[in-house]
């Protein structure tokens, strides 16, 4: 434990995660979407959230751009800053899991080591990695924000897939072919995984 936190004692809650899960009629979990920029992480995360929300689940999406405006506004895109960005998001997601929420995160999270570090914050089964698998060619042809074009022109340093690495997950809990399959198909895959794991009911 670091010196800064050595005198801080965790206060035991009277309402537990289990209590909240019972009331919600579903379990809480983190769905960690990873993939290249424009691979479809946000689209899929928000589409899954919509379905879960409409079914009465407690959900929240932590999205790349949103957290960078506030929680992580002091961080850039160096590998060191990206690691700290993900660590903070992991800690926030952990709190939200305690609050009984199904948390969906949409961050490129390019390095295996950083994703594994976030995974290690959670008990087994609470962190489900979903690989949004779309080739760089597909992502670059989509380029909804013109970021690839700007990165190719040398205007954006450390751009994942162009001038910064992306390490695909080796053993994710789920792989979605977001480069080729329709979004609805990917949504069904995610919901099926949640049913199989007993996170949501059939
Ligand atoms: P990311 O969050 O990974 O940067 P986005 O969710 O913003 O990517 O998606 C980038 C673009 O790709 C969007 O224009 C979106 O409509 C499209 N897209 C996302 N998922 C799919 C999919 N499964 N099939 C086809 N197009 C998709």
Explained architecture:
This protein has 202 residues and is an alpha/beta fold. The chain has a single domain (17-196), classed as Rossmann fold. The chain has helices at residues 17-24, 41-54, 64-69, 79-98, 112-119, 136-142, 147-152, 183-196, and strands spanning 29-34, 59-63, 102-106, 127-132, 174-176. Helix 2 (41-54) packs across helix 8 and helix 4 packs parallel to helix 5. The longest helix has 20 residues, at 79-98. The protein is globular and about 55 Å long. The relative contact order is 0.20. The protein binds adenosine-5'-diphosphate (ADP).
What structural class do you assign from the helix and strand content?
alpha/beta
The CATH class assignment is Alpha Beta
Total helical segments: 8
Shape: globular
**Overall CATH architecture:** 3-Layer(aba) Sandwich
CATH superfamily: P-loop containing nucleotide triphosphate hydrolases
Give the strand order, joined by hyphens, for the main sheet.
2-3-1-4-5
Ligand catalogue: adenosine-5'-diphosphate
CATH topology name: Rossmann fold
Quote the average pLDDT. 95
Radius of gyration: 17 Å
Number of strands: 5
How many domains would you count in the coordinates?
1
Classify the helix fraction into a percent range.
Answer: 40-55%
- Low-pLDDT runs of 5+ residues are none
Beta fraction: 5-15%
Largest sheet: number of strands, sense, barrel closure: 5 strands, parallel
What are the secondary-structure elements, in order, as H or E? HEHEHHEHEHHEH
Straight-line distance between termini: 42 Å
């Amino acid at each position: 434990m670091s010196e800064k936190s050595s005198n801080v004692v965790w206060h035991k809650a009277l309402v537990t995660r289990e209590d909240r899960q019972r009331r919600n009629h579903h379990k809480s979990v983190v769905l960690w979407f990873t993939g290249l920029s424009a691979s479809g992480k946000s689209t899929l995360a928000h589409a899954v959230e919509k379905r879960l929300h409409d079914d009465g689940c407690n959900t929240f999406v932590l999205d790349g751009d949103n957290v960078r405006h506030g929680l992580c506004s002091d961080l850039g895109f160096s590998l060191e800053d990206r690691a700290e960005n993900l660590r903070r998001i992991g800690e926030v997601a952990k709190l939200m899991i305690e609050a009984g929420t199904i948390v969906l995160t949409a961050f490129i999270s390019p390095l295996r080591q950083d994703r594994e570090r976030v995974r290690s914050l959670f008990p087994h089964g609470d962190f489900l990695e979903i690989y949004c698998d779309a080739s760089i060619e597909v992502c670059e042809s989509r380029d909804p924000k013109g970021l690839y074009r700007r990165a190719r022109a040398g205007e954006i340093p450390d751009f994942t897939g162009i001038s910064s690495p992306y390490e695909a997950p080796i053993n994710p809990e789920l792989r979605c072919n977001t480069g080729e399959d329709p979004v609805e198909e990917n949504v069904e895959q995610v919901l099926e995984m949640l049913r199989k794991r007993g996170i949501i009911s059939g």
